[in-house]
Design goal:
The protein has helices spanning about 5-25, 35-55, 60-70. By secondary structure, the protein is mostly helical.
Length: about 70
C-alpha cells in the first residue's frame, strides 16, 4: 500500500509533531498577576497622558478672540 519511503516520511512527521508538542510550553488564556499589574499601570499612564494632551489640544478663548478681530 505505502512504499518504504512514504512510511519513513510519515514516521518522521509523527515524531517531529510529538517532539514539538513536548517541547513547546503550554500557554494559558489568563495572564499572570504580574502581567495584569503591568497592564493596569500602563492604562493609568495612558489615562494621564490623555488628560495632559487633551488640555493642550483644547482651543483657548483668547486665541479665538484674537483671530476674530483680524
Amino acid at each position: 500500500m505505502f512504499s518504504q519511503h512514504s512510511k519513513v516520511c510519515l514516521l518522521a512527521l509523527f515524531v517531529s509533531v510529538a517532539f514539538l508538542i513536548l517541547i513547546v510550553p503550554q500557554t494559558t488564556a489568563r495572564p499572570s498577576v504580574d502581567d495584569m499589574t503591568d497592564m493596569a499601570e500602563a492604562l493609568r499612564y495612558l489615562e494621564k497622558l490623555d488628560r495632559y494632551y487633551s488640555q493642550l489640544a483644547r482651543p483657548r478663548k483668547y486665541i479665538t478672540l484674537m483671530t476674530s478681530e483680524l
